[in-house]
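One such given next:
>
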Amino acid sequence: MKLTVLIITILLALTLSKGAHAAEETDEAASAHGAPVAAAQLATSEEGTPQHLTRNVSAESDVVVSLYLGAGSIVVRGWDKKEVRARAGEVGRLELRRTGATDGSRGARRVEVLVSNSEDDEEMPAGEPGGTGHIELDVPRGATVNLKLRQGDVEISDVAEARVDSGNGDVDARRISRAAELSCLSGSIYLRDSSGRVRLNAMSGDVEAVNVRAADEREELIATSTSGDVRLEGIAHARVEGRTVSGSVRFIGRITDGGTYSLKTTSGDVTLAVPADSSFNVKALVVAGGEIITDFEVGAVEGTKKPITKLSKGLLAGRVGAGGAEVSLSSFSGTVYLRKR
């Protein structure tokens, strides 16, 4: 009797194992032909508490990954695997839809991350707002990541290109190697230790870029805010623009010979803080309610007999040192500072 029970148990275990293996092969085969991989269902504990969902798919090293989330938070990390892994909490369904696998390879060229709060949501259209929850993505370091989020914070690091459009929440990006295009309606933007083309735009919030360099001399860094401060430090681009309507603009670091730098605000102060041995041509303008104060002697100013270090309102235009870079500073209502570091 005991022997019979043992044999039945072994046969049942082998049957279940083969069934699970066959299901995995079916998912991979469908995905390789452009079909969506099977969506992961929400797992629950014995007490009915929602558990995290995890989904993996093989991908090319330069894969394009897209996610459109209604609300929650998103964390993206680059890793050395040729694979996209998604982990989601507080959602009903999670699907990785892959397209564009190359010939002779099972790696996807594009992956769309689809999220729903309902386990019964059979159709999850791409390009539309997904559910709500916390999503974590691990992607190849050479990936381009497109994120849209109506409400919530975004953290993204160690990828080639980051394109983020946030409605309400902060965006924090680090170690982006090729291009960063980050925008939000209400929230602040932070970019650190990155390189390449940069465009940062916040409607209501601060914008900060620290230790960012150009990969190509033609690349530019543009940082703007409507209501918030703009702070640029350790920027190695030769074409830099920082502007806001209501707030201050600060540039701290070195300027490149032959570069162009434009810092502007309507209501607030503008500060350019550069090494004492810097050389540049400067045009500084204050229209009302402020001064132009400079630690540098600005020479060759038309209509003056000696260098100027302070001017109440008006335009200060001249050369510092041997000239070279072109610097434009302006505030309608505020003070413009040229500081030696």
Observations:
- The helical segments are 2-32.
- Confidence is low (pLDDT under 50) at residues 1-50.
